[in-house]
Amino acid sequence: MSEMRCPRCGNIVPPMTDRCPACGTPLSNGVLPQLQFVDAVKMVFQKYADFSGRSRRSEFWWFYLFGVIVGVVLNIITSISGTLGYVLMGLYWVATIVPNLAVGVRRLHDIGKSGFNLFWGLLPIVGVILLIVWWVKDSDPRPNEYGPSPKYVM
Questions:
Q1: Rounded to an integer, what distance in angstroms lies between the CA atom of residue 30 and that of residue 32?
Q2: DSSP category for residue 151
Q3: CB under 8 A, 24+ apart: contacts of 27-30
Q4: What are 15-39's pLDDT values in tens digits?
């Protein structure tokens, strides 16, 4: 049997338990609770360049929202101070390109698709729509070639 990890703290959860022994996160009905914003962002940065394994929808979309919020703040800074904003934007982009790609690949793994499908995003309109459709799909509850489901406790 493959190991399950707590969505909040990332520690290994023993089989047939209803709570994470490390942080107490409840695990109900075989489905782990949705990740919260801060936990998801922390988890993505902890797995900075990890292109293996699987990521839940909540992890992916909370990190996406984090990027949107930071982008809005950086655009405001850019409109106020120009050069400083552009420098900060460049630094943010360099710091987050790898985790953005990694969480996108892990999200595709969660539905049983290869990470190479991320290249569809290079196609204007159609590729981006295809990726969004895949990213909003629910997790495959069974283990697949990329590992056990991070959402469902088996």
A1: 7
A2: S
A3: 27/153, 30/152, 30/153, 30/154
A4: 667 777 887 777 665 677 778 899 9
pTM of the model: 0.79
Ordered alpha helix ranges (H), 3-139: 37-46, 57-81, 83-110, 126-136
Which residues are bridge partners to 12 per DSSP? 5
Q: Which residues, 6+ apart, have CB-to-CB distance to 5 below 8 Å?
A: 11, 12, 13, 150
- Of 46, 16, 26, 32, residue with least CA distance to 150: 32
Residues in the chain, how many? 154
Burial class (CB in 10 A: 0-12, 13-18, 19+), 10: middle
pLDDT tens-digit series, residues 73-107: 999 999 998 899 999 999 999 999 999 999 999 99
Cβ burial 67-102 (10 Å sphere, 16+ → b, else e): beeeeeebeebbeeeeeebeebbeeeeeebeebeeb
* Cβ-based neighbours of 86, under 8 Å, separated by 6 or more: 78
